[in-house]
Amino acid sequence: MGHCPLRRLRVGARLPVADLLGLSALGSGGHCWGLRGLAAICRAGRDAFHRVPFIVPAWFADAATQTMDSQLTNVTLKHFVACAACFYLGFFSLSQVGRLQPFWLGLLGGFLLVLVAGFEQHFGGLEESRRYFYLYVYPHMKEIPPGYLKKMASGRIFATLFYPNALAGVLLLLLPAMLVMAWRICADWLTPAAKSFLVSVVGLAGLACLYWSGSKGGWLLMLLLGVAVVLRLRLPKPFKLALITGVLLAGVIGFFWRHADFFQKGATSVSARFDYWRAALQTAADRPFFGTGPGTFAIPYEKIKKPESEMSRMVHNDYLEQASDSGVVGFLSYAFLIVGGLAWSLRTPPRLPPRSGDAGSSSSRPPPRPRLRPRTQSYGDEDDDTNKGNRDNQTGWHRFFSTGEDWLRFSVWLGLLGWSLQSLLEFSLYIPALAWLAFTLLGWLLGLGGRGIGAQSADPEGFRGSSARPCF
Questions:
Q1: Residue 392 and residue 374: Cα distance in Å, rounded?
Q2: Plot region of 11 (φ>0 → left; ψ -120 to 50 → alpha; else → beta)
Q3: How far apart are alpha carbons 374 and 389 in whole angstroms?
Q4: What is the DSSP string of 124-174?
Q5: Helix, strand or coil for residue 98?
Q6: pTM for the full model?
Q7: Does residue 426 surpass a pLDDT of 80?
Q8: What's the distance, CA 77 to chain centroid?
Q9: Which of 215, 234, 332, 348 is 20–30 Å from 34 (CA)?
């Protein structure tokens, strides 16, 4: 819990001086942009926003010139460059692909493997690993990493990740989208009852792994995502209010029942996080412009931490981590990237290209209006005048929240919201398995607007034709 996952990476040669100077010059050119970013985005729109992930690591490269530990900073900078590359891969490449079935199928398959590993650990795998460790590994260890024995003695599962809260981050990021994909993949060859059963199995398996991970923040954030889904459903307001109240009450009561022992012992991890955050703010106040260098929080924290606090290499808050490591400008730039990206991708409706097989289709022809399936009809393409009139009266974000074809896009956005909120409590940005995928999906969402990046934009669902139907 108190170590940095990036430290496991091999540290190669230091960044070439010329490359570092080039990034520094680019970051210096972005200083004024960082102060006027919000106004520029409001004027230029989504087409200007894709420059932000390029400027953020450039500023971090500027901060690297003042680092307290060049080795840690070099590893962290490489990771940040990979995050920016993943964003642009989603923005310029993935958003232009018309059929994304292989991508989503691969992601779903990997997600199911994570769930299987979690179940295997809960039903005997952790105990077997613990027995093997104490019999064959522990007697020959000369030096034991801090917290390793505590991790081995814990019953919290972590599946294929290195840390239980990292598993919770994967579930927050991917579970909403994977439920939608489980429904859509079998849309044409299973009955509605069978599809509901399949989605329920995947959802319950994900929630079970979240429960066994013991992540308290993940539990509460999953409740929040569930409330967001209920708010989007087209239900009568009294029923929706009663459903939200019931979900919140059940979730909060279950939370305090599950973690009663934790609160009785004084919630030590909570108090430790407050000390990390205090130290990060103090470091940012002492070095407000460049900070101590990316990835170097542990160096000043070792000097100013409370004696009773556990040593940590990370702030357990990605936003305050940027303030401590890269100064106020680094904090503002990263916060603007995440908050602005979520806000803009929610507001921007996707543009569907005309089908390649349609007669007379051209890039200048406006995309057809999505067809809605009336509640009283089957899964066919029938329509009626009432629904057509209601659909015509919907504009802007109202159509986004009421159109069935946007469920996958919304679920990806919901997962990114969960990941960004968990970053307030964890170091999700510094876990490649989380950060690289999150930035790829964020770039994909922003690239779906289509303006300024090509004549055609991807189908936001990744499917065309008869399978593009409402998911719920």
A1: 14
A2: beta
A3: 12
A4: IIHHHHHHHIIIIIGGG-SS--TTHHHHHH-----TTSSSHHHHHHHHHHH
A5: coil
A6: 0.75
A7: yes
A8: 20
A9: 348
